[in-house]
Amino acid sequence: MAEPGSQKLQAPPNFDGPVKRKCTDTLFMLVLVCCWIAMTVIGIKAVQTGNPDRLVNGIDYQGRICGVDAGVETLTKMYYIRFDGTGVCVADCPAATDLNTLYTCTTPDAAFANGGADQLNCKGADAQQCADLTGVTDPATFSGGGDGACMYQIESVDVLNHCLFTDPAIADAFVSLNSQMSYMQQFLADIYTARNWILGFGFGFSLVMGFVYCLLLRVPGVVAIMTWGSILAVIALFAAVGYGLYTKGDEWAADTTNQHTDVQITIARIFGIAGYVLAGLFACLALFMCRRIRLATSIMKEAARAIGKIPAMILMPVVEAVGLVLFFVPLVFYGVYVASMGDFSTTTVAGLEVKTVTYGSEVQGMGWYLLFCLFWTTQFIIAMGQIVVALAVVKYFFTRDKSTLGSGTFFKAMKDGMWYHMGTAAFGSLIIAIIQMIRAIIAWFQKKAKASGNKIAQYALCCCQCCFWCLQKCMQFINKNAYIQTALFSTGFCKSGKEAFFLIARNIVRVGAVSMVSEFMIIIMKLVICLATMAATYLGLDATIGNELHSFVGPTIFVGVLAYLVASVFAELFSMTTATILQCFIADEEMYSPAERYADNDLKDFVNTHGAPKRLRKGSPAELPHPVALNGTGGGKHTAVSGTA
User: Which stretches of sequence are listed as region Disordered (predicted)?
Assistant: First the structure.
């Protein structure tokens, strides 16, 4: 009796590539639709009961929405006066710092407010109610700040109707007991100031970089140049980022106006040194993996050849982006209303009753459900993209006359994927979404454990988080290969996952070797797009609005995150293409005799040469071409199918 998984693949009767389709895992698509309907019901309820003005305009200490509720109709800005977020509504964010005459208070007493209730003047209040001015000579050092019912007038910038402090020295002093708030305020202020650059470079520039990179890889003879050029570019970009940040830190340190704190200078220098270190480490890694890089070049050539025959495949990242936008728009809309459904609770602060927003179990449950919808739908869109690419590449592989292929092949794959296999995508993405949801819950408990100071709970939860992260990565790998099996044989998720697992297990040497180096090339692609975008952003900010920012670090890193997400979408196209070609090659080898196989000789030589164990490349009798020696001896009645490559 054959061992489980030793039975090799058999071609179905009259198999001629992914031509005959059937619907798979339809039930799970219906469940996903029900999930979307439930999300819409929650959204409608939130729209009926929520008030997003609470989030956009802010709420003062009396629970009034700035610019909306009676008494503060003309006071549209939220100005914070305490560490806990207590604030008052003001007409405009202060344009200048004044420590002598003007204050912002919670006390609606005419004696403390020349311009009316809750205005910018409460001079005369005692030290318990107002920040103490005694002995103040430096605006960066004062006592009592942020701990009573009043605060100095401090220069701030309007960010979504909330006044965020602009002067780093005053901001640091104001939140001396809570430095996290200071850096978050500065970060948000910088993000708002550089918002046009962030959108333009984070999305626009990185998108153009992704298209250019993919188009260049399709050009014959350019792959090797792109590979080594990308590696050198990564090293140069790491070094350039390091040089720029370290130099900027030195400039800030030499600045006699003291516009930047010691912490900001230190952070800039640390990131600069990190850039130099990463450049050196990456250079050493490139030298060490020289042979593997040559292999990666060959792999990218195979993927580029497939994309070159089906040029419309390069549009897949755009299609996925459109799908994500169509989902994110209603999700964010519903999420804003859910977040505005909290109830007011009253607490006593410095002898003053202060109203704050709290969320009940029902509202929290709505938020968790929307988060689950986010996980499932985003993973579903990614899964559909993988299935469509797999369908197109499988058609490419199992077509003998490649001249019959074209962009129409991609659009046919899109139609087949959406008509037959959305259920399989929903099934696989549900598994990943459940794991992500568990990780989100663990992260929530981690935050609670950190706040309580329970070290044992923190370590235990950290271990759980790591385990589920590993589980997620394993399931994503299984899902990816299961989708390829679905594209090949139009089978459901469970059967496809099982067949993919055993197919890879029977050919673990070749799959492991080729997959490892192909992923290395994918990482190079991501780094080039991400680092080039960050470098361009840094130079642009420095040349234009550098004097308006607390630091370049926040906006540059934010752009880097966006660019990495965009680069990942383009990289996934090549990753899925190489994985599909490799699995098609092995399936082709198991299903057909040498004379009947679809793989061309170049691909056979490439996979067999680079997938063989090193000990079999020295002219031994077991040396390739003999795939049976690599695939194992347990082939049952189908062992002869493997033949000679």
Answer: 613-645
- Answer left, alpha or beta for residue 387, where phi above 0 means left and psi between -120 and 50 means alpha: alpha
* Residue partners of 68: CB distance under 8 A and separation at least 6: 53, 57
Q: Quote the pLDDT of residue 611.
A: 53
Q: What number of other Cβ atoms are within 10 A of residue 130's Cβ?
A: 24
Q: Which residue has the tokens 């305490």?
A: 82
**Which residues are paired to 159 by β-bridges?**
162
DSSP class of residue 401 equals -
Cross-strand partners of 343: 358
Q: CA 290, CA 459: separation in Å to the nearest integer?
A: 39
Cα atoms in the 13 Å half-sphere on the side-chain side of 293: 21
CA 471 centroid distance within chain: 18
Q: In what order do the strands lie in the sheet with 87-90?
A: 87-90, 77-80, 162-165, 156-159
Query: Strand, helix or coil at 157?
Result: strand
Contacts of residue 438, defined as CB under 8 A and 6 or more positions apart, other chains included, come to 468
Residue 110, judged by CB atoms within 10 A of its CB (0-12, 13-18, 19+), counts as exposed
Give the DSSP letter of residue 92.
Answer: S
Count other Cβ atoms within 10 Å, centred on residue 232.
12
Residues in the chain where the model's pLDDT stays below 50: 1, 102, 107-148, 173-182, 350-352, 613-645
Question: For 116, which DSSP code?
Answer: S
- What pLDDT score was predicted for residue 593? 77
C-alpha 486/C-alpha 493 separation (Å) is 7
Residue 90 contacts residue 104 (beta carbons within 8 Å): yes
Please provide residue 240's backbone torsions phi and psi, each rounded to the nearest 5 degrees. -65, -45
Q: Is 315 exposed, middle or buried (0-12, 13-18, 19+ CB in 10 A)?
A: middle
For 7-20, what is the HEC assignment? CCCCCCCCCCCCCC
Helix residue ranges per DSSP H, 312-360: 316-339
Is-contact 565 378, C-beta < 8 A? Answer: no
What's the longest Cα–Cα distance across the chain?
100
Around Cβ 219, how many Cβ atoms within 10 Å? 12
Distance CA 496, CA 484 (A): 8
Kindly report, residue by residue over 172-191, the tens digit of the pLDDT. 544 443 444 445 556 666 77
Give residue 338's pLDDT. Answer: 84
Amino acid letter for position 631:
N
